[in-house]
Amino acid sequence: MTLSDLFHRQPGEPPRRPGAAAPAEQVALAESLLQACAHLLTHRLDPDESMRWVFDALLRAAPRVRLCWSWVGPPDALRIVPGNVCGPARGYVDGLVLERNQVTESGPAFSLLRQDQLVTHNIRADSPYAPWRQAYQQHGLRSVLGLPLRSERSGSRGMVVMYADQADYFDQLGLGMFDSLATLLGAVVVQADQQNRLTREAQQDPLTGLLNRRSLYEHQPPRGPGLERCASVLLLDLDHFKTVNDERGHLAGDEVLKAVARRLLDGVRSADRVARWGGEEFLVWLPSTPLEGARRLAESLRERIGSVPIALPGGEVRQTVSIGVAEMRPDEHLEPAVARADEVLYEAKRHGRNQVCVWRPTTPEAAASDRPPGTALPNNPPDDPELALIGKQLDGQITRWNDGAERLFGYSAQEVIGRNIALLLPADRLNEEQRILDRLQSGEAIDNLETTRLHRDGHPIAVTLSVTPLWGRGGTIVGAAKTVRRRRGTEPPAAPSAPALPPVDTPPVHLAAPRPPAAEPDPLQPTPPPTP
Ligand SMILES: Nc1nc2c(ncn2[C@@H]2O[C@H](COP(=O)(O)OP(=O)(O)OP(=O)(O)O)[C@@H](O)[C@H]2O)c(=O)[nH]1
């Protein structure tokens, strides 16, 4: 095939008469468009970027082309607004909106929507351009080429329209290359459709249509000193939702989740973001919202969801929610704020559900250091010679001393990743402590639970733990355990493993030994804290 064939071949037609344009211009245009195509193949540009890339290549190689624009939309569109406008005569389409009417129907844009064939017109002579002839001439436009684009998959139609400052320019250059270009750009449109659909699917929860967890993480705005100062998060969990599933069936449960999602969307501002966080958990991210405003909104959402029953085919359901509220610090991202909201959500559940709990630092020290409550727990070996000796044996590897396994629940999961935690077992609560440790194990929240029991006079007095929560994004360890249990079967992100404890005199007791699956009632519900 010769270069001339390339330009003048029309599918299904014999080769056309070669145009009058200089071969050098044809070569330059062919090279430029081929390079643009190669770029599209090797770079993941979005459709608009792809169009503009091709237009730039075309305008560089063919200076007589003064203007290009494109449009993609439904075949029955009532208006066409030129997009991706490029070229020195772009002023011609500034603010141009083509409404479908008797005059525009016969114009080039709407005729391209009707037919699937490339069109060329000489503006001076051809009648469809009569209404616009003067404007065209003001911008030095003499001929036009319209390329139809079609996305078979979605049924979208589209067009690329180019204008040159010379009559018959495109005919003279030859139409074969432009026909191939139309095919290529049509493929770009198809790809764009597919990409948009995949992006939508990847960002949305299919049941509720809300954002999913990943897309919320991806779309959080940049944080840091001097940027967005006050933002807050609400973590919502439906109360006793299992009962709805058990008594009304899973489909009814799904309808309740959808209704709650709608009520959440109706109750927030357009700048707020609502995501389905997990099974029956939702996250609302509130930009520019300090803690008190977030608490008020949480109360109104709780009211909006719980006060009006949800109508279902088999009879209505009243669904309440518990909500944890936390403010994001200026320099922090979503994750730690969600962990704090999760901590207080757990409190809201413990205190009877259908309520809002707000995370605030619990001690003056914690408030002063602006750290989560767990970090205010004892950090030094107690004043006991034997325990001090243990601490010495362990050569400072114990990073936290706790006065009981129950206190572990106060830690955020992130805090204990890679930590060695020593638990001091109160003699009167040995069994209770053991039970709590068993629960943590059976909830699969903790990896690498190496425990070493320390005895005095034949009685255990302390357990050292090397703890690595599996689910770094959970809030408290219990929250993490609950999350992991819900998602059992999914692969949680790997957490860094904790350094092993050095051996001590007494034989290690591995609580991680195989155990039967957790039995009902919920093995992860912690017992109430010890009475002082
Ligand atoms: N129908 C339906 N149920 C779901 C979906 N995702 C999670 N669930 C259910 O949500 C329920 C969550 O139960 P639990 O974690 O025990 O919590 P709960 O019953 O709401 O109790 P509290 O949170 O303690 O008030 C389980 O029955 C899950 O099967 C879903 O997409 N559709």
Automatic annotation (TrEMBL):
Which residues belong to any copy of the PAS domain?
395-443
GO molecular-function annotation terms? diguanylate cyclase activity
UniProt lists compositionally biased (Pro residues) regions at: 493-506, 514-532
Recorded catalytic reaction(s): these are: 2 GTP = 3',3'-c-di-GMP + 2 diphosphate
Q: Which UniProt keywords apply?
A: Nucleotidyltransferase, Transferase
- Basic and acidic residues compositional bias, start-end: 1-16
Record protein name field: diguanylate cyclase
Q: Which organism is it from?
A: Curvibacter cyanobacteriorum
